[in-house]
Amino acid sequence: xxxxxxxxIGVDRFTLGHLACGLLLGLMGAGFWTTTIAAVGWxxxxxxxxxxxxxxxxxxxxxxxxxxxxxxxxxIVGWGIIQLxxxxxxxxxxxxxxxxxx
Length: 102
Hints:
- The relative contact order is 0.22.
- Helices cover 59% and strands 0% of the residues.
- It is mainly alpha-helical.
- The radius of gyration is 15 Å and the shape is elongated.
- The model has no long low-confidence stretch (mean pLDDT 86).
- The chain has helices at 15-27, 32-52, 65-83, 94-100.
- The protein has one domain (3-100).
């Protein structure tokens, strides 16, 4: 996909990265609302950060509403995928079990 389309269409090459954020939060044991707030919060602050520090983004153009919405949803879908796996009682999630071995 050409860079000029990134951030303008609903799903772009960066949507997978947003899905990965949701997967990571799920592995860390974050709850649904924590993940949702993080996803929406990031989409709210992402554009001002792009204006302030454009060099840290591969494509520093502002996200369209459709793109920001789908990216936030991708976080939640990633989190939901992790919830499909069984968890051991007393630990926050699969990553905690891996780290702490309980």
